[in-house]
Target: DUF1441 family protein
Amino acid sequence: MSDLITLSTGEVLDVAAWPLPEGAVDDGQPVSRSRLATIFCKSENTITDWIAKGMPVASGGRNGVSYEFNLAHCWAWRQWRDASDEAARRQQSESDRQNRLAFLNHDTDTEREIGHLTPAEIRAMAEAEYHRNRVAEQRGDLVRKDRVRAVFEDIFVSIGAEMDTLPDYAEMNFGLSAQQVAQLEERCDQARMDIRQQVEQLLERSGVVVPMTGKQAELGL
Model:
């Protein structure tokens, strides 16, 4: 059964799509800002910042009346916002990846390197590289990109979890203002995006297998 709410931005959010975590209890009674901060393990300044960003409010907030919240609505909004932010980051990363590939396709260096070879020579070179890569993989000198990507994704999850809690930790332990917390949240989001883009660039970069017989500096790595 759907439970639709209209956000301040005009978007309609289906609360049923983002149910409360298993074991969470919601008696349907309004929740104060301080209680909501306690439930979400956040500071009241963070709750205030979320209100400014569009978190639904059940009542209050004017003429000295305290805010009251619907727990299920706030949880759904928080999950929806996190998913939207992650989708935006992924979309930007994918856009950057496509642009890199587009510019790579216009790179004439590769064309100059193999332009003088016959089709048979190009095929022989490709087969030799394939067999060399297979041997390197069996020896453990070469790791498939999808495996590396999976490892990085696990790392991103851990980094993301730490960055999500860092602003509140800093606020509670170092007395940051609401503005400073918001700035730290923005910086954490940007750092996470920068890390992802750098890793994506590394994973998209073409490479060759070289024998590790000397120092990396001597190999030009």
